[in-house]
Design a protein that fits this description.
heterodimer; A: 532 residues; mainly alpha; two-stranded antiparallel sheet; B: 498 residues; two-stranded antiparallel ribbon
Chain lengths: 532, 498
């Protein structure tokens, strides 16, 4: 398979599958698996080609930039595509059974601020009355109905992500970002509950206005430089007030979409109220799409504009996210909200990449550290949200304080949660550790010790909120409740991803080599030791 | 790669795979689980014996796979590793047997033995690590795998103990991580090597190396229970008896002490560390811990608590040995790594036996236990006398070398500390022995169980007898060529080679 085919297949196979799900709505499950298989083959081929031949550029229709559209694959793109393929496959497997499996008896809705809205007494008894006779049949139908919408939206989301990671110009990035946003918002609304709809609406507003900001910025850049192609911009961009304004607009929009503190407010309700596979996709992939564009802008197209002040500012926001997200996570009453706030915190680490990778000394160390961390978080967070979905299904609730019984009965899921937690905390040998190790290395080499303190403190807080959940795995229960049964594939998918989050630590050398291909940051990997 | 290179990973996998398989066993598969446990422990013992034999034949072993960029995940078998790995595999075998007997008919045994095996994997990994990052990996793994063992009973008290344990060890782990990263940024990949690797940096980075050493001692000192970082240890006593035995003799506390030994001898180099002036504060901290632990032990009525504070005190003998320059102190400290292990595990086995058979948990309830359970009490007596330092038992050897070592370097205060500690040891152990042997037993024991022919279940009785025999052997045959002392002398000779 040539590289051009691999690139085409990455975008076309989920797209074709999405289109086919409209024609054959009952075949969604199989179409998704087929798409996962095809993208899997394509990404493996592409990875091999990129490792062998370096950066690949595919000119769509044979027209080169600035006239035509370039699709480009370097180490960073390939890493993001690999992660997407992996999470996509896992979600395809998990969702095979998720919607058909029994729905929670009494969904515990959350207000949009994450506070529990207690259902009134009348409402409660009414639902109890109706549930006996009429509900099961209609509930099942509803679940299947939801599933019919899930597959095409999921496949569109996948298409948008793959296209985003392959795009080489800032307008194309806008188009894919917009597609991604719409698919994501609709998927959140899929849960159908009031809280989910509120969260989805809020997410929609943020996403739309953020896109507008970004588009405005793109327009200004085009006016200044007469091109939107990333490599050409790097050659043409002259720092000036107009460019600064453009960059500020784009960055503002992307920060809101990437849920960086203080623009994270929309994330916890949206991620916590979506169906479990959707929460996983949002936390693992969607927010990272915007982060990816930020990297492309600041390190590639407008590298000279990333002054130390700007870089430190990103770092400060990231550090605030780490602390704010972790502390909030520590006080959540619901498992899914805890995981969502953990996402806010973990996204903060990604932004530490800006102050650390911008420096010549150890820049590449921080670059690969940050991106390995991104992969680690994607695997671990997906595993956690899928686990949370299992617990929600089995117990009918996800109140942390009442988890005593259920954790005995879902040992595989709880074990998966523990392994994923290891990676989030950054315990060796997990990939989360490898990422943090490289970031710490760079921070110490550059004498930026304040980030060292933030990283270590964040790890301890992560340990605290993970342990808070896991302590329930060991409590004694007098009368264990009988859980709703969970299809094994839902448990094992979560465990496989959690294992991967741990084992990937051993692949960090390989990942660093991959990231080296076309890396926009200079400098060798830090070896430590006295300079010869 | 030939078969020989797979020996080291094999030693780890023997318990790792056992642990994973056990997780999947159903609760009622009692017999299968027991056999698996013993098989894993037995295979590990055989592999370690093969390792010893190979090294005796002049073979060297190493194993490495890619891990972090530029830093492999590396196993090796130097003299220090062999000392610790032999200790842990022998004592693990005993503890496995004991735990099988102890936990009969209690719930969640698959979970328990699964984590139990993983815990030992982490401990042997610590012993066999050839570089600092690999050490850190297993050190953190040990934290994670012991937590489920400590909270095993699931009572609110157990969970509280577990929480305190996690808080202490994870904060310690973070400090250790900082030290490791910092040292790597100064010195590059840190490989364990006799006489250390930092000599070339000592002049140019004196201040930084001193701070990093302090961070190392804070991080490792949590597990080694150096005062004031020892707070978790008495709280972790809520764990079942086999866990306490393992924690105190081989796993957690020993991992901390072994880490300190590694840092002092094989990273900094003991002479280099002395030149940096970091050993004196460490010696003082160890001395304070020795006296403090003994004094606190004196006032505990609960037997396991008394033993816990005794551990706080005794483990710092190892640290003290590392903190005093000179081959004799080194020998004393390192040999105590083994001696404290076999003595303390015997004491904990016996304490568990008393609790299981008679229901006695307190020293004040131990009147006349020697008449009811003579074999157990004999083992207890041997170990307790060893702790006090009565010749010719194991503890005497450690104390004698430490004493000589401190006099050799002119640290007379150390000799005083050791003397005071021995007196205190006697003060908190002898009354127990007196009660056990010479006081009349009560009419009725708090909760007595009968286990057939023997005074207690044979699986509970055999392990302490074996380890008590080891205590005698390590003392009486100390000068033979097959003793911990002989091996430790070899290590000391290498650390101080001209």
């Amino acid at each position: 398979m040539t590289a051009a085919w691999a690139i085409a297949l990455l975008i076309l196979s989920p797209l074709a599958a999405a289109a086919l799900t409209f024609a054959f709505p009952r075949r969604g499950r199989w179409l998704a698996l087929a798409a996962a298989l095809m993208t899997g083959i394509a990404i493996v081929q592409l990875t091999r080609r990129v490792l062998a031949d370096g950066v690949l550029v595919h000119r769509v229709g044979g027209w080169s930039a600035p006239l035509g559209i370039d699709l480009r694959a370097d180490g960073l793109s390939v890493l993001m595509l690999l992660i997407t393929a992996l999470i996509g496959l896992a979600v395809s497997l998990y969702a095979q059974r998720y919607f058909a499996a029994h729905e929670p008896e009494r969904p515990h809705e959350t207000g949009s601020n994450g506070r529990e809205s207690a259902p009134s007494l009348g409402e409660k008894s009414q639902s109890r009355l109706t549930s006996a006779a009429t509900k099961p049949a209609s509930k099942e139908a509803k679940a299947l109905h939801r599933e019919h919408y899930f597959w095409p939206l999921f496949l569109f989301l996948w298409t948008a992500l793959n296209a985003l990671f392959l795009s080489a110009d800032i307008f194309n990035l806008y188009v894919t970002l917009e597609l991604l946003g719409f698919a994501a918002v609709t998927l959140v609304a899929l849960a159908g509950k009031r809280a989910a709809l509120t969260a989805a609406l809020r997410y929609l507003f943020v996403s739309l206005s953020a896109s507008l900001f970004y588009l405005l910025g793109v327009g200004l850049v085009y006016g200044q430089c007469a091109t939107v192609d990333l490599p050409l911009l790097a050659a043409k961009a002259q720092p000036g007030p107009a460019l600064w304004v453009a960059l500020a607009l784009m960055t503002g929009g992307l920060i809101a979409k990437a849920a960086l503190f203080p623009m994270h407010f929309w994330l916890p309700p949206a991620h916590a109220n979506a169906p479990a596979p959707v929460s996983a996709l949002l936390s693992a992939l969607v927010v990272k799409g915007s982060f990816y564009i930020l990297l492309r802008l600041w390190f590639e197209a407008f590298g000279p504009l990333l002054t130390p002040t700007v870089a430190q500012l990103f770092g400060v926001l990231g550090a605030a996210a780490i602390l704010w997200g972790s502390v909030n996570s520590l006080f959540q009453k619901r498992l899914k909200l805890l995981i969502a706030y953990s996402t806010v915190a973990q996204l903060g680490y990604l932004f530490l990449l800006f102050p650390l990778a911008a420096s010549m000394d150890g820049g590449f160390t921080a670059w690969s550290g940050g991106l390995i961390f991104l992969g680690a978080h994607a695997c671990a967070k997906t595993a956690m949200f899928l686990t949370a979905g299992n617990i929600l299904h089995a117990a009918g609730h996800d109140r942390i304080k009442d988890l005593d019984g259920i954790t005995h009965l879902l040992p595989v899921s709880v074990f998966a949660f523990g392994l994923a937690g290891m990676s989030l905390i950054g315990l060796p040998p997990s990939s989360g550790f490898a990422g943090k190790w490289l970031l710490l290395n760079a921070a110490l080499a550059q004498g930026q010790w304040w980030w060292v303190a933030v990283i270590l403190l964040g790890s301890l807080l992560a340990a605290a909120y993970v342990a808070r959940v896991l302590a329930h795995a060991f409590t004694q229960v007098n009368e264990p409740q009988i859980p709703n049964s969970i299809p094994p594939v839902m448990e094992w998918t979560a465990l496989a991803l959690a294992l991967l989050a741990v084992v990937l630590g051993f692949a960090s050398q390989w990942l660093a080599e991959l990231l080296r291909v076309g890396a926009p940051v200079a400098g060798a990997m830090l070896r430590g030791g006295p300079t010869p | 790669m030939n078969v020989q290179d797979l020996l080291l990973p094999g030693i780890l996998l023997s318990s790792f795979v056992t642990g994973l398989v056990i997780f999947f066993l159903k609760e009622e598969h009692h017999r299968l689980r027991t056999w698996l446990n013993l098989l894993g422990a037995g295979v590990k013992l055989i592999l370690v014996a093969a390792l010893l034999w190979g090294i005796y034949q002049g073979q060297t072993y190493s194993f490495a796979i890619e891990f972090l960029p530029g830093i492999p995940f590396a196993l090796g078998a130097d003299a220090n590793s062999v000392l610790f790995v032999t200790l842990s595999s022998v004592l693990w075998f005993c503890t496995t047997l004991y735990a099988v007997g102890y936990l009969e008919d209690s719930p969640h045994r698959s979970r328990f033995f699964g984590f139990f095996s993983l815990c030992v994997t982490a401990t042997t990994g610590i012993a066999l690590s050839a570089n600092l990052v690999t050490f850190l990996t297993f050190y953190e793994l040990l934290t994670v795998t012991t937590y489920p063992l400590i909270v095993h009973r699931g009572t609110p008290e157990a969970l509280r103990g577990g929480k305190i344990y996690l808080t202490y060890t994870l904060v310690g782990g973070a400090i250790l991580l900082l030290a490791v990263v910092w040292l790597h940024s100064l010195a590059g990949p840190v490989v364990f090597k006799e006489r250390g690797i930092l000599q070339s940096l000592a002049a140019s980075h004196r201040g930084e190396l001193q701070i990093i050493f302090l961070l190392f001692m804070l991080g490792l000192g949590v597990k080694a229970a150096i005062v004031p970082l020892h707070g978790w240890l008495p709280k972790a006593m809520v764990a079942p008896a086999p866990v306490s035995s393992l924690l105190h003799a081989v796993a957690v506390v020993k991992a901390g002490a072994f880490g300190i030994v590694r840092i002092v001898y094989d990273v900094y180099g003991v002479e280099n560390a002395a030149a940096l002036g970091v050993l004196q504060p460490l010696a003082i901290a160890a001395g304070v811990t020795i006296v403090y632990g003994s004094v606190r032990a004196l006032f505990q009525d609960e037997l396991k608590k008394r033993l816990a504070y005794s551990t706080v005190s005794q483990v710092s003998y190892i640290v003290l040995g590392a903190a005093i320059l000179g081959p004799l102190a080194t020998i004393g400290g390192l040999v105590h790594l083994v001696n404290q292990g076999i003595m303390k595990i015997t004491l904990f086995f016996c304490a568990g036996d008393y609790a299981e058979t008679l229901g006695t948990h307190r020293v004040s309830e131990m009147n006349g236990v020697g008449r009811r359970m003579p074999w157990t009490t004999a083992a207890f007596t041997v170990a307790a006398l060893g702790m006090i330092g009565v010749p010719p038992l194991a503890g005497y050897i450690s104390k004698w070398y430490l004493q000589k070592g401190s006099i050799q370097t002119g640290d007379e205060w150390v000799a005083l500390v050791l003397g005071a500690s021995s007196l205190l040891n006697a003060a908190y152990f002898l009354p127990i022995l007196y009660r056990a042997w010479f006081k009349a037993p009560p009419e009725q024991w708090p909760a007595e169980h009968r286990f057939g022919t023997w005074e207690t279940h044979w699986m509970l009785l055999l392990p302490p007898l074996v380890t008590a025999a080891l205590v005698i052997w390590a003392g009486v045959f100390a000068e033979s060529s097959f003793s911990p002392l002989a091996w430790v002398k070899l290590i000391a000779a290498r650390e101080y080679a001209p």
